[in-house]
What we know:
This protein is mostly helical. The chain has two domains: 27-172, no CATH class; 182-313. Helix content is 64%, strand content 1%. The protein is built from 15 helices and two strands. The chain has helices spanning 3-24, 30-50, 54-58, 66-72, 80-88, 94-114, 118-135, 142-156, 165-168, 178-203, 207-210, 212-219, 235-255, 259-280, 283-298; strands spanning 324-325, 336-337. The chain has a two-stranded antiparallel sheet.
Amino acid sequence: MPAPRAAIERGVARAWAAVERFAFAPASAAPLAVLRIGLASVLLVQAGMVAPALFELYGRSGILQTPLLDAHGGPGFVRLGWLIDRLATLGIGEGPIIVAVGASYVLALAALLAGWHTRVAAAGAWFSHLMLMMTADSTNYGVDQFANIFLFYLMWMPAGAALSLDRRLGRAPVGPTSSARLALRVVQIHLCIVYLTGGLGKALGEQWWNGDAIWRTLNLPDYRQYDFTWLARYPWLAVVAGWTVLFIECGYPLMIWPRRTRRLWVAATVALHVGIAVFMGLSVFGAIMAVLTISAFAVRANPPESMLSETDAPRGEGATSAPQELHGPARHHGVRLAPGTRG
């Protein structure tokens, strides 16, 4: 075999091995469990905030009357109006249907929080959340889109394999799995794309460079929580704040992966969303975005050291030994941990 061809094949083999280590090396389901618990908790709080205005938001005699509600609702049949029209032939009124969908949503979130029949609970929460979103489409904003996307992800992820009733009842896989690693990578890459596109979108305009976006955000009636008119005397503070937001968001996909900068970027990102919650009043949005970054990058994904034999334990960042064989419960699943894999 010609030497160049052999070199190419070795390079391809090494590249594929790196892809396998990155995407499929067995990982703990703990980050996915934190995502499940955090997302369900925040959405339950949001549901409690929305409950007093349930009929005003989703009823046909609420803030938007029937024609407007239907006109401004999302496209497709996944809407309360469609369900109300179909069940009206059975003599079921609008009120019980709205209450039933709302109750189903809350019960599904509670089951998701506890990790009881996790995938079914995620599917129920996702579908009922989608139906409510499509019904009152004009009231949606970014947090609703993110919540629905990650509820959909949880339908397919092994998020019930840790910190759950499913795990306690023996319905979830024991030990690290390749599916948990792949699911975690999906979440991580999704967040990197979101922050990069968001940061670049802001950077294309002047408002975030000259501080105008910060000024408007803090002083517009829709978001104003405190009196920040004093910023007019210190415009450089708004400029620094705008640059900081650009730095955090554009740097997210570069700085969140290396171990040396990961904790700093997680802390900076969480601080950014705490600021959004406090100074803009978008508490649900800030909480959900913080949960996403913490679960994806701050929770250990590698198997605990107790699952490795003392002789097979990783020997440091530069370890290049053969794959370590897991002991204990994971051994019965034939799981092996690729060397040098990091969460």
